[in-house]
Structures are given as structure tokens and as C-alpha cells.
Amino acid sequence: EAGVTQFPSHSVIEKGQTVTLRCDPISGHDNLYWYRRVMGKEIKFLLHFVKESKQDESGMPNNRFLAERTGGTYSTLKVQPAELEDSGVYFCASSQAVWGTQYFGPGTRLLVL
Amino acid sequence: KQEVTQIPAALSVPEGENLVLNCSFTDSAIYNLQWFRQDPGKGLTSLLLIQSSQREQTSGRLNASLDKSSGRSTLYIAASQPGDSATYLCAVSPNTGNQFYFGTGTSLTVIP
Question: Which of A42, A60, A109 to mutate to test the interface with B (most CBs of B within 10 A)?
Fold first, then answer.
């Protein structure tokens, strides 16, 4: 069974540009989560989808971040415009049950110059 | 707001030694606690998940315990091997939502 995949693995962009990260969850997992780890800090929750609906987006830092999950399959996280402090590793995870084990993808390493 | 602390931040042990990693959390109203392993440049691999009603979980050489009332969990690794070298992360899920609050991790090095 394929795990959670994320694309791209790395992205280097300039301040003010737009970047879109993609996550493909494990097939059949209705729950999809986005997390972020900035340098030297702990991993922090961004938001949670149940199918195509946003269940909890309390961790989204500001309105420059937009997450979508059209059709309830893959998800995208767009940062527009990117700022220096957005640099970090963005992780996606999925789970079958709402309270179940979360399986993480390898992450997208974003560097904003 | 839930805060998760992991001590020590880094640990270096000789191969074969048994070791304990610690995790503490400030709000005992949790639904479950999960231990992860992260290898350099890789994602997180789930090791063990303990529901709030459980006291411990075991998988191979790993044993995780949970004392919810005192806000503590430990991950015990028996007979450590160089392949166990990685960063170990503890994360708790609150009763009020299905997200995880993570600690900053313990970086483990097992010396051959």
C-alpha cells in the first residue's frame, strides 16, 4: 500500500512569490492534516480536512495560506505571497479514523529567500 | 494551551544499552499520545499510539507507557542498535480536537 506522498520535496522561492504544495493521502483515508515545522521549533498543526470539508483550521497562521481538498482526495496548500518566515518543512498526514493513527508524508522543504 | 516537552534534547549511548526517552505534557485532557521516529531528511514514522485509557503499548523492543494524570509518557528502547539512531517525537491529541501537539524531539545516537 502506498504511503502519504508530497510534492515537491523541496522548493526554493523568492519573497512575494506563490508556492503550491500537494499532498496525496493514503487511499481511503478521509482525514487529512497539514503541519509545519519551522527552524528550531516543534511541529505545529495547521488544519484538518474530513473528506473535502475543513474540520479545523485553527492553526493556519494567516490569510496568505489557503488549503483545498477538492473531491476529498488530494490536497493543496498555497502560500501567496510567501514571506521569509514561511520557510520550513510542511508535513501532510492522513488517517482512516478521526481519532486514529496518523501516517505522515516525507514533507516539503520550503525555503523563501 | 497544550505544551509538550521532551527531555533530553539529545542522547548518545553505546550499542546494546537500554534507554528511556521522556515526554511530558501540561494538559492531561488528552485523547491519545503517539510516539514517532524521524530519520534525517525523511518524514515521521509512527511507532506506538496509546489511547488515554491505556497504560502502555509494546512493539518489539519498544515499550511506551502513559501516566495521564501526571502528564507523562516514556518510551523504553531495549538493547539499542545503531539503526535506532533518529529523532524521536512525542505528540498528544486533545479531547477537543483531532490534531497533535508535538514536542521538539530527542535526537538519539547509538554508537556501534
Answer: A42
Q: What angle do CA B21, A89, A5 make, to 5 degrees?
A: 95
Q: Are B94 and B48 in contact (CB under 8 A)?
A: no
What are the φ and ψ backbone dihedral angles of B47, each rounded to 5 degrees? -100, -55
Q: What pLDDT score does A1 carry?
A: 62
Out of A41, A42, A104, name the one closest to residue B44 (CB): A104
**Residue in A31, A43, A98 closest to B102 by CB:** A43
pLDDT for B2-39, tens place per residue? 899 999 999 999 999 999 999 999 999 998 999 999 99
* Beta bridge partners of residue A109, listed in sequence order: A10, A89
